[in-house]
Each structure stands twice: as structure tokens, then as C-alpha cells.
Amino acid sequence: MICTSQERRHPISSLNGVFLLVSALLIFANPVFGQLDQKEIDFDAVFSAGFSRGGTVLNLSGKKIGDEGLKLLLKLGDPLKKVKSLDLRYCELSEEAGALLAQSQAFPNLKKLEIRHNFLMDIGTVALAEAEGMPRLEKLGLGWNEVRDAGALALAQSERFPKLKKLDLRGNFFADKTKKELKEKLVHLKKLKLEAHL
Do residues 23 and 67 share a domain? Predict the structure, then answer.
């Protein structure tokens, strides 16, 4: 069979096309390569817009501030002392965020802390369980944070939240034995959520 010059070039052209497609996917999918296309967050504007009800509520849900944004938030100082409700859902927080919150004294009047749908995992949850700066906390939402048994049991054994009434741990991964222990040790809570019902 005789191949024309055009037919001989076809496989190479196909490979070039595949290479260009893969390169494009890597650039747009990889956060390192794709940073130039990402819009930088104006943290000051995001934080300012999040305050309401005379500064007692701070809603940053979905703002994707990440750990670096949380570090900046915790440096705000006086404005945070009035905050009673803090919503950090969908903020792309990692294990580090648990330690940052635990070490902070920024929220002495905080009653409600919502951190659902992040990535605190066991390390961040264990750290958060030792927080000393939130003695008035009444409601803690840690659902869908990739938390396992160690993190949950650390919360159950913690004495840092004496006023806690509601704990949401839905969407995490606990052994049946751990669930039983949580129910026993946290029987004093008004509401303990462990199961995500459809």
C-alpha cells in the first residue's frame, strides 16, 4: 500500500493535537499553572461585606478565603470581639484552619461557629477541640469535613466548650462504636447530628 505525504503526516498531526489538548487541560485545571487566570480576592472588601447586625454576625460562606484569608481575618482585632455568629462554610479551609481558630483569642463572644463543607479532617478537628478562646460557644457545625474517629472523639472529650448545646458532625466518617460513644459522652447536648439523611 502506498501512503501519500498527507497520510504520513496525519499521525503526527494527531499527536500534536493531543499534546495541545492535554497542555490546555493542565493549565486550566492545575491551580499552580492556572493562577494567572484566577481573580485575586479583595479580603478587606469580603470581610467588610460579611458583617451584619451591628457587627455581631460575620457571614463568609462560599467566599473561599482559604487558610491565608483566615489568617488575615484573625488579625482584624477589635471588630471580631463583637461577633456572635461566624459562618465559614465552603471557604476551602484545611487542617491548618482548626489550629488557627484554636490558637486565636479573636472571638470571645462567639456563640455559633459554622465550618461545614471544608477540609479540617482529624488534625484540624483535634486542634479545634482544644480551643481556649471560645468559651461561650453554643453551636458548632463541622459537617462534611472529612473527620474520622479521632477528631470526633477529641470533641467528645473536650472541656473547652462548656456552653455547647448543638453539634453537627453529619457527612463525616465514624465507626459504629464511635457513634455510640459520641452519643453517650454528649448526651447532655440539646442536639447532636451524626447522620446525613436524604
Answer: no
The pTM of the full predicted model, rounded to 2 decimals, is 0.80
**3-state SS, residue 166:** strand
Q: What is the pLDDT of residues 161-192, one digit of tens each?
A: 999 999 999 999 999 999 999 999 999 999 99
C-alpha cell at 3: 501512503
Q: 40: which 3 cell numbers?
A: 485575586
Between strands 51-52 and 139-141, the pairing is: unpaired
**How far is the C-alpha of 100 from the C-alpha of 90, rounded, in Å?**
17
CB 164 within 8 A of CB 140: yes
Q: Is the dihedral of CA 99, 104, 106, 109 positive or negative?
A: positive
Look up the domain containing 49 and give its range. Answer: 40-193
- Closest by CA to 192, choosing from 132, 152, 160, 159, is 152
Query: Residue 52 carries which DSSP code?
Result: E
State how far the Cα of 126 lies from the Cα of 121, in Å rounded to an integer.
Answer: 9
* Residue 19 sits in the same domain as residue 66: no
Q: What is the DSSP letter of 36?
A: G
